[in-house]
């Protein structure tokens, strides 16, 4: 087994240099392994590796997963990010010892991946309020849950609802939206579940369309997102599809939490069971 660990010094609140040493001490004998910084990963030749391990948050996982998907490699995740939505969804713990054990000894399963206008994603992509938060997150220098909370509070008041047109497996609907999530996994991160019914192996994407709650109802929305249940309610309408066309969502999007600008109509499709990933036994 030949393994490449890809780490991101900017993941989470603060990168801990000892993490690399800690992981090194946990690797069983007889395994060839190397480490590379995510900033050097684009130009790094990964053809000789059997497994690519992402050490970081959802953005790092996205980058490494894309390569694993392209080259038919096995992906493993050691979560060290701010939200770690995919890792939490797959029950991969943030404890280094436990996460390394899963990366080395867990079971390999096939999961769905998706793309929006050619941009690969593995967990959640979205527009509206959540995309605005992604574009602003970290600009104030505060990472982690505190940084998210600060950015959300700063952005919430000024943003208004708009209309979006969705074509879901050929069926068109137009409705008001404040935030729009296209979910392969369930979580935004930090155990906030936008799509608790998501099944990452069913060949379908969950579509969550959120209305803007009044300030007095924000606490109720937060409780719902932490409740790990999915149902149509005053805040959210849910749909399911494998092919999605979107008009009038705005140019600001996020792909697995990373900000991107997408112009014109958006086309989203899923690739069923296209990626090998290590999960707990």
Structure description:
The protein is an alpha+beta fold and 281 residues long. It folds into two domains: 2-112, Rossmann fold (3-Layer(aba) Sandwich), CATH 3.40.50; 119-271, Tumour Suppressor Smad4. The chain has helices spanning 18-26, 58-71, 85-89, 96-105, 129-136, 144-156, 218-226; strands at 2-7, 32-37, 51-56, 74-79, 107-116, 119-121, 124-128, 162-168, 171-177, 179-183, 187-189, 192-193, 205-210, 236-241, 243-247, 252-255, 258-261, 266-279. The strands form three sheets. Strands 1, 2, 3, 4, 5, 6, 8, 9, 15 and 18 form a ten-stranded mixed β-sheet that branches. The chain has a six-stranded antiparallel β-sheet with strand order 14-13-10-7-16-17. A two-stranded antiparallel ribbon has the order 11-12. A hairpin with a 2-residue loop joins strand 16 and strand 17. Helix 5 packs across helix 6 (144-156). It is globular and about 55 Å long. The protein starts with a strand and ends with a strand. The relative contact order is 0.18. The model has no long low-confidence stretch (mean pLDDT 91).
């Amino acid at each position: 087994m030949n393994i490449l660990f890809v780490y991101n010094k900017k993941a989470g609140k603060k990168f801990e240099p000892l993490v690399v040493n800690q992981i090194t001490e946990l690797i069983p004998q007889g395994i060839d392994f190397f480490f590379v910084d995510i900033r050097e990963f684009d130009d790094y030749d990964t053809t000789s590796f059997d497994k690519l391990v992402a050490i970081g948050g959802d953005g790092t996982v996205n980058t490494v997963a894309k390569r694993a998907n392209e080259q038919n490699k096995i992906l493993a995740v050691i979560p060290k990010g701010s939200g770690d939505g995919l890792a939490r969804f797959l029950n991969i713990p943030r404890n280094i010892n436990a996460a390394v054990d899963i990366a080395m000894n867990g079971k390999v399963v096939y999961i769905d991946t998706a793309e929006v206008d050619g941009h690969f994603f593995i967990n959640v992509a979205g527009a509206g309020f959540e995309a605005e938060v992604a574009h602003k997150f970290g600009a104030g220098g505060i990472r982690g849950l505190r940084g998210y909370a600060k950015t959300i509070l700063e952005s919430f008041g000024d943003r208004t609802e708009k209309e979006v047109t969705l074509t879901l497996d050929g069926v068109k609907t137009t409705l008001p939206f404040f935030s729009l999530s296209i979910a392969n996994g369930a979580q935004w991160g930090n155990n906030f579940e936008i799509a608790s019914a998501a099944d990452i192996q069913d060949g379908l994407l969950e579509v969550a369309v959120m209305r803007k709650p009044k300030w007095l109802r924000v606490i109720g929305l937060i409780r719902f997102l932490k409740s790990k249940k999915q149902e149509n309610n005053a805040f959210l309408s849910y749909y399911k599809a494998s092919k999605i066309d979107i008009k009038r969502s705005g140019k600001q999007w996020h792909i697995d939490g990373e900000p991107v600008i997408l112009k014109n109509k958006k086309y989203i499709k899923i690739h069923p069971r296209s990626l090998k990933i290590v999960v707990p036994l």
